[in-house]
């Protein structure tokens, strides 16, 4: 699974962005549970999920800041 691009996150509207953040947080919690119980088959998924969450939170923060354009 290739890492997603931040441009994809920037194309989401505010409601979809919040929904995605919540979904990714749930997915990350589930992956951590699987890791703790020894049932996680693909440990790289935790890193990919954290990366996606970071992207979404970055876009959310960019939208909160006034007069700032994305880099």
From TrEMBL:
GO cellular component: cytosolic large ribosomal subunit
InterPro entries named in the record: Ribosomal_protein_uL29, Ribosomal_uL29, Ribosomal_uL29_sf
Record's keyword annotation contains Ribonucleoprotein: yes
Chain segments carrying region Disordered: 48-71
Record's keyword terms, sorted: Ribonucleoprotein, Ribosomal protein
Gene Ontology MF terms: structural constituent of ribosome
GO biological process: translation
NCBIfam families named among the record's database cross-references: L29 (TIGR00012)
Family: Belongs to the universal ribosomal protein uL29 family.
Name by which UniProt lists this protein: Large ribosomal subunit protein uL29
Annotated source species: Limnospira maxima CS-328
Classification of source organism: Bacteria, Bacillati, Cyanobacteriota, Cyanophyceae, Oscillatoriophycideae
């Amino acid at each position: 699974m290739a890492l997603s691009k931040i441009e994809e996150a920037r194309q989401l509207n505010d409601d979809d962005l919040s929904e995605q953040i919540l979904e990714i947080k749930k997915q990350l919690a589930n992956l951590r549970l699987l890791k703790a119980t020894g049932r996680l088959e693909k440990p790289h998924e935790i890193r990919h999920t954290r990366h996606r969450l970071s992207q979404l939170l970055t876009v959310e923060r960019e939208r909160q800041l006034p007069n700032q354009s994305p880099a």
